[in-house]
Amino acid sequence: MTEFSLTEAIAVLSRTPATLNALLRGLPNIWVRCNEGKDTWSAFDIVGHLIVGERTDWMTRVRIILENGEARPFDPFDRLAQLKESQDKSLEQLLDEFARLRRDNLAALHALNLQHEDLTRRGRHPALGVVTLSELLATWAVHDLTHVHQLSRVMAHQYREAVGPWSVYLGVLRCEGHSDS
Amino acid sequence: MTEFSLTEAIAVLSRTPATLNALLRGLPNIWVRCNEGKDTWSAFDIVGHLIVGERTDWMTRVRIILENGEARPFDPFDRLAQLKESQDKSLEQLLDEFARLRRDNLAALHALNLQHEDLTRRGRHPALGVVTLSELLATWAVHDLTHVHQLSRVMAHQYREAVGPWSVYLGVLRCEGHSDS
What we know:
Two copies of one chain form a homodimer. By secondary structure, the first copy, chain A, is mainly alpha-helical. The first copy, chain A, has helices at 6-13, 16-24, 29-33, 43-68, 81-85, 91-111, 133-157; strands spanning 122-125, 129-132. Chain A has a two-stranded antiparallel ribbon with strand order 1-2. In chain A, strand 1 and strand 2 form a beta hairpin. Chains A and B meet through helix 1, helix 2, strand 2 and helix 7 of A and helix 1, strand 2 and helix 6 of B.
């Protein structure tokens, strides 16, 4: 287990738009628009959710910590906002929008010129209580990974029957959907 | 749940090299060389494993089905071969090698000019018994997805402590490592 490093977290955050682009752009609809059943998300919904995070959550919370500390709790994250906001767009539009928002947010993060001692500054999560700036930034990166994890699972689900007896060897088909946050 | 389609399977298979490239190339060592503990795989090991599959497994098995049917069981897949074969290479070399092998294998698959009726042809897996060509090809694609799933989990594991109280919301941190096949 390792300590948080801003450089290492940014290395992940900066790669996610290109990763999703390579994985998803131009795929047939079966991989993009199908989900795992009622009230679950498709790849399309997941990219929409990442966009909402860029627009309303991550950098907003960074600024609240720097400006208000623990005095002002974060606003809750609307986990269903994308279901209405993205519905008239194409996957390709969502991928472009996510890439642009992420680039802008990483530029804004860079402009803050955070120093090592800033990483221990504290804020207040509405449900989790006191958190630090480094925990928020680490969570931003791991949140990307949790949705890459979910994407691979949602896609694999579409071929659950098609793989026949091999399903016993394919771990992703045994994943129980713990990654929809 | 959907039926197998060769076009749809190839859509996934052809994107995996660029996905891994976007996710991994140039990342700091913490994300590439760390694993989840004793006898588990790092991102580096996973790319090595995908290379072994391209070299020895998938297209070899396609040809065995087409040439020998059920009469000749597949050779078992050596799941640990990459641990010795990749050790002196860089991640960047592995990513290039995987991309080249996958491109060549998809060209060879295309050259077979498989018809719809070929997809039901049968072969024999050494442990699973009778399987069909479409099941093999579906498994090739889902095997890619299972390792994208594993990669995101192995990477997220490195920040298990760094995310602090947010760990309860990050599904990838609750995944129990069912995807190491």
